[in-house]
Design goal:
The chain is α/β, with parallel strands linked by helices and 618 residues long. It contains 20 helices and 29 strands. A five-stranded parallel sheet has the order 4-3-5-6-7, sandwiched between helices.
Length: 618
Amino acid sequence: MREKDLGIWQTWSWREVLREVRALAGGLHAMGLRRGAKLAVIGDNRPRLYWAMAAAQALGAVPVPLYQDAVAEEMVYVLNNADAALAVVEDQEQVDKLLEIRPRCPQLGHIIYDDPRGLRHYGAADLHSYEEVRGLGLVRDREHPEFFERELAEGRGGDVAIMLYTSGTTGSPKGVCLTHDNLIITGRNGIEREGLNAGEEVLAYLPMAWVGDNLFSYTQSYVAGFCVSCPEGPDTVLDDMREIGPTYFFAPPRIYENLLTQVTIRMQDAGFLKRRMFRHFMEVARRAGTRILDGERVAPAEQLRYSLGRQLVYNPLKDALGMSRLKLAYTAGEAIGPEIFAFYRSLGINIKQLYGQTEAAVFVCVQPDREVKADTVGTPFTDVEVKVTDAGEVWYRGPGVFHSYYKNAEATAATKTPEGWVRTGDAGYFDDAGHLKIIDRAKDVGKLADGTLFAPKYLENKLKFFPYIKEAVCFGDRCDCVTAFINIDLSAVGDWAERRGLAYSGYPDLASKPEVYELVRECVEKVNRDLAADARLAGSQIRRFLVLHKELDADDGELTRTRKVRRGYIAEKYAPLVRALYDGSAQCSFNAEVKFEDGRRSALRAELKIWDASTLPA
């Protein structure tokens, strides 16, 4: 493992990792952690937090990672529902949250922290440093050298290995119990399918509470033996990625979109010759890059031009993105824009889409090499069966299927059939090549008043393909037409505004500019043109929209911690704005409450304009 600390990469061999895990397991046992008990883990990606998970699993206990950016109030439910007995956290921020909610979490005992900065004068008797607990473990290991192996020997593949909480899009989060077999077999299948080995390099930067990090940065690392590097902090991820040069990478579409937006902005600042060269060779890449990556025949002249572009543009660009050594990249969670997808693949980056769930230990479908299409999520993963029911819902079963929802037998029975099939809640179908296409959440797919299919997530994803639109929420079920809330991307639209000499004081001011509304309308009307070409969706073109005066935020309850839109909550919170979209109003005043990270709240009043967008016949 590696971790960047104070600008220097610290490293640990596998032997050193074993010593750390062994010592920490002894220390946690001395603190009272027993088989079946739950250990809360909270913080950014840190080696010691990963080791705490491994130490708990060695003892037969169950780690429960929480989202590090969750406010204290959100943690109460998860800690109590999980029956967390101990907690290992990163720093003072997380300690303060737990001390604040401690009276409402009576089962929570000792709190162990990694970074001691700011904690010197904290007097709580059950607050301990990592070094203190590690020291207890070293003593136990000297006195009982057989202890660690004995605890390991009692573990079984069918035991619960970790508990990960769902995002809670429509209700309270559920604790998904995954076994060692779920993770190890799925991880090994992924390694074999993609040809991964011990020489891979991975950057661990996504939340530890998310199932993808637990598979890609944790399970597969242990199974294959490759190196995982932890960045210095969230703000240094891109710089650290350039230094490491990972060979294996996962990111949600928004990360790839942000990187492309940065490239676009930088190229607009470049000189005339650089811009001309970039545009010329990106056109060559668009014509030939993906075909070369997929092993198709390309004319010799085109191959020569692409080779020249590789030296002058593609390789320097990949190096700037930290992707110079990348041999496999995944994206999932939301649909990725076809243009963005094609951009990376045209550079020779083997980026592929996968479809998965926490309940599947990630993998349900993944795109096979040389069969990568922007509008599908690929074919069923190794040893996974996938079917589409008569109602159009996607079901699957395989070795990754979760054990149960913790303390929720009713939800488990509603999701998993006695035969082991998992109901995904997603609507989809297989194309003629056997690739799965996901339309939307089955419960979210509705109809307009005239019977036209309404798939809000599909429309929202098409809007978010534009770099100027960060988030979108569409309405229309049982209504006469489709309308939308839009969040602009402050960095992309801010750069666009500065180039046009458009002054603004902040997000609310920029979002209200007529010029910005016109920019957003162009994006909406481009989406409408695409929809007009699809007979099934032509009637769901977006007729009216507004640009929200604030960014949708997880702290305000509008998004989940995995940045999924809580559509029902937003419709209720902004009900006057939704009504205004449908009653013909040209504007609507609204008071919103904004919650800051320190818990303070502030009222934000705005007068929002509502614009019409042109639609086309099918």
